[in-house]
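Sample entry (408 residues):
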Amino acid sequence: MNYITRELERKFLKMSGFFKAVLVTGARQVGKTTMLKHLAEGSERTYVSLDNSMVRDLAKSDPVLFFQTYKPPILIDEVQKAPELFEQIKIICDESEEKGLIWMTGSQQYKMMERVRETLAGRVGLLELYGLSQREKRGVVFDEELDFSMPGLQARQRKVEKNDITRVFAHIWEGGMPQVLGEEEELRNEYYNSYVDTYLMRDVAEAGGIVDAVRFRKFLTGCGALVSQQVNYTTLAESAGISPPTAKAWLDILQALHIVYLLNPYSNNALKRLSKTPKLYFCDTGLCAFLSLWPTPGALMNGAASGAYYENYVVMELVKNYAYAKSKANLTYYRDDNAKEIDVIVEESNLIHPLEIKKSAMPDKREVKKFALIDKSTLTRGAGGIVCMCEEPLPIDEKDCFIPGNLI
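Predicted structure, serialized as tokens:
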């Protein structure tokens, strides 16, 4: 398969030129190793994987000898398997002025991240890689940062084909795992099946001691049924025959392993009576569609859950955009006790950008009336609008547009 350029490459190389060590975390199989091996091509960088039991034993028992054997510059794969290395990495970083000495990949886990932050503070750049975005699949690179204003959207529109719902749902159903790209249904299903049974079961056993495969699988399916909704621990607990506190602990583990993404509710004293429950999304919509037994992209597109999957897709495209962008943004959603809801609030440079998400190509423009909540508060509002299946950006009023989903 041809290498697919990843949006994170730009940021990674910048971090590698600034920090002495860089760690890329993310779910299994999203392409962390492939990306770093690609970036290391033609250089003298040593590659070593801690999946190899003999190498791992050496790393755990004698970190000094490990680095004598595998000298920097080095790429260490699956570094979470030998946290004993971090102390020695700190010493190597402190003894050298060279940048980008140590590249690492890891499936993020609480214990590893705690050790990294304690031991390597100020020495390590932390980055996160997600599955393939729709832009990466199509080879589209936007030069300008995401800007919800009409001119900003029009500049992006010139680079992409018109929004097309069958193409969007093919992407949603297929998901972002590089290995399933372009594969037929049977192989995709087998891939996700083994992904759950091998990687995921092994990781949840290591991360949280979960060994009941049957209940855990039911729990995953229960999460799939709640996609794009507020988390309900009682419902999740009932789906797997476990207690609500156990359901919360299991969901925390799935979040740490980058299987699910929890969008937190907006909180600010300027707005009263806000919800405190996060909304549940899958980092990979293909895995979610597999767990919920949607057999084809067409069945998903025409099914009862299509709006929820479209929302999941838009939210994760936003998450990926800001994970790889120069500027950082805080993503939340708004819901008050009158059940008024704004699907996504993008907080960037002290501006609030409110976004509604609709699968329709012609959503009702009155949806933006609820944005008045922000206008009436002391918060400063930026451009916003309705992210939808329209073919090109169109103004709704002076601050809001219809935003084609493929421009994010």
